[in-house]
Amino acid sequence: MDxxxxxxxxxxxxxxxxANASAVIVGGGIPIDMGKTWKDGRRILGDGKTWxxxxxxxxxxxxxxxxxxxxxxxxTVSDYSFLHxxxxxxxxxxxxxxxxxxxxxxLGDVIESFFKxxxxxxxxxxxxxFDQLDFLVxxxxxxxxxxxxxxxxxxxxxxxxxxxxKIWHILILLVVTPFIHIAxxxxxxxxxxxxxxx
Length: 198
Hints:
0% strand
């Protein structure tokens, strides 16, 4: 496998990772489910899914994506042009595409939390592999739909999803993401535990 495929995969997923991590770090405040319970007596989502986390995570992920888009434009005329890194369609269409990646990631996490509560898993309990892949699947699905919409409306020259994300990109991310997610969670919990002790 050409190593450029790996670089391209991680280039695309950086905004998704940042959105997902940011929602945890800067989250808090009013829960999306407003503290309500489902008919099974359990919370619809839980206190971990908040409006602030949803919107702040999306914004921070998109901000990182804008930086990558600018960098990709410079790299295409440099010695690294062979990497063929996406600029997410450039301005202005990178806005809806990056929104779909970042918001889609967090929406996938929210939907997974709903089903996680239904199977009796509490906040903080692991639900492998769904906890590790929900945001990635949400990002891929939502960005596909957004790319399809932009293409059907003739707002973009091509279908961004199909020419930027290949099957090898998806397979790499499906394999690697769970390990990164588990390691990041372990570090976050350790840091939070240390902060609590102090």
